[in-house]
TrEMBL record:
Organism domain of life: Eukaryota
InterPro entries the UniProt entry points to: His_Pase_superF_clade-1, His_PPase_superfam, Phosphatase_SH3-domain
Protein name as it appears in the record: Phosphoglycerate mutase family protein
Pfam family, one: His_Phos_1
SUPFAM superfamilies (alphabetical): Phosphoglycerate mutase-like (SSF53254)
Gene3D superfamilies: Phosphoglycerate mutase-like
Species for this entry: Pelagomonas calceolata
Amino acid sequence: MAAHAQAAQKPTLFIVRHGERVDETSHKAAWKAQTPANRRFDPPLTEQGATQARTAAEFLRSQCFDRIYASPCARTLATAKELSEALGDLPVTVVPALAACAAAVKKRGLENLPFLAPTEMARMCPRIDSFGESAPKSFEAACAWVSQQTPQALVVSHREGIRDLAHEKLKLPYCAVGVFEKGGEDWVLKALHRNTGELLVSRG
């Protein structure tokens, strides 16, 4: 019993990849044509992506979370909105460095990209109540910061983040859920699920 209690206290992250993004659909050209060049790094979620997020929420419903920590990208905020609404209106904290893992952000730098203004973020995801401005600026350090806020955290980020923490190039469908536990200095991937809950990877 004591060993089980000790295991349960390990910091745990449930990292949800965002849902389908418009620039990976047949609508890419139309979206690109009407979007300023400096904002093309931040494609929005599609309706299908919103549905994928709601499906993920059904899988996550059995877990206990007190809030959602989200990357500031449009697609992650829209995913966080759907999760929040489906999980009892969980409050949302925007953590800038949870976007630091994304390919476009790695290429150009977190401080060099015009993310949405806080008021625009709040319109997109009304349950935003805070911004993790004191969080570190690297993705892994931001994950450690999140784990210090709560022992079991729900994070909405990007496929590259799950891959970076796992140290492997996993195949990650939209709204896949990676479950990580803190093991010493590193995060250890314990399980990877589809948004439906189907188990894709199990590491015991």
